[in-house]
TrEMBL record:
Listed Gene3D superfamilies: 3.30.450.40, Winged helix-like DNA-binding domain superfamily/Winged helix DNA-binding domain
GO biological process assignments: negative regulation of DNA-templated transcription
Keyword Nucleus part of the UniProt annotation: no
Domain IclR-ED, first and last residues per copy: 91-274
HTH iclR-type domain mapped to chain residues: 29-90
Protein name: IclR family transcriptional regulator
Upper lineage: Bacteria, Pseudomonadati, Pseudomonadota, Alphaproteobacteria, Rhodobacterales
Entry-linked InterPro entries: GAF-like_dom_sf, HTH_MetabolicPath_Reg, TransRegBhcR, Tscrpt_reg_IclR_C, Tscrpt_reg_IclR_N, WH-like_DNA-bd_sf, WH_DNA-bd_sf
Keywords: DNA-binding, Transcription, Transcription regulation
GO molecular function: DNA binding; DNA-binding transcription factor activity
Presence of keyword Transcription: yes
Amino acid sequence: MDSPRDAGGTTRKMRGRPRGWDDTGAAVVKSLDRAMAILDHLGQHSGLSLSTLAGDLGQSPATVYRVLVTLESRGLVELDRLEQHWHVGPRAFVIGAQFLRRTSLVERARPIMRRLMEVTGETANLGRVQGDSVLFLSQVETHEAIRAFFPPGTLSPLHASGIGKALLAEMPAARVAGIAAASGLPGFTPKTLQRADALAADLAATRARGHAIDDEERNVGMRCIAAPVFDVHGEAVAGISVSGPTSRMDRDRSAPIAAAVMSAAAELTVAIAGVAPIRPPA
């Protein structure tokens, strides 16, 4: 790993390392790395026996057991003595909660949004629900002359927004109906979804494909593709999207842009320690 340099090209001292440390050599503690692999694997399952865990990781049961006992002494794993299954322990939750307290959604999203803008060539947006609107939290603008512009703090109706519909699609039907009744589903263009049944059908399609499409429903000539971001409880807390003129975001580009948006949303979900809900097969 190269050392960081300042604006003048001078190598800066790396913080958080011992004096004189050389990162070109191996810095990984193998036993600790093995322990983290075991903890990570346990976190992906609801409980595993020693033999299954050792088999999954290609390690000897004796080696895995020594690691588990060490982790157990710190509360990071625990053994269900009735079923003889190992589980992630309460201390792991405490450590994870400390991570969540210092995690900023906007901060975590910025590099992901920059990459999304570079991949698609269009403006990337981040927003969350506020009342019956989408509150835009952050934006990375494209370099194109004609582009979408939603500065932080902008509000947009949920039913006429890509991010809004991505988030509505994850809400219970009763809540969606309440929002629709409160807002009245006002029209902005001939394509705005103003009937509750039309909106419900669109939200069902959104859930099925994993992304929402605002097809000139808020502004004529502008299209948006969005996907939800989930928190640690599997609840949609934000949406990430790409917006641009229909002349560039045409039908031929919809599939690759949608794939990029869903990938970015999944990456941000992981970055905030979230988990996407498991959906039954269509």
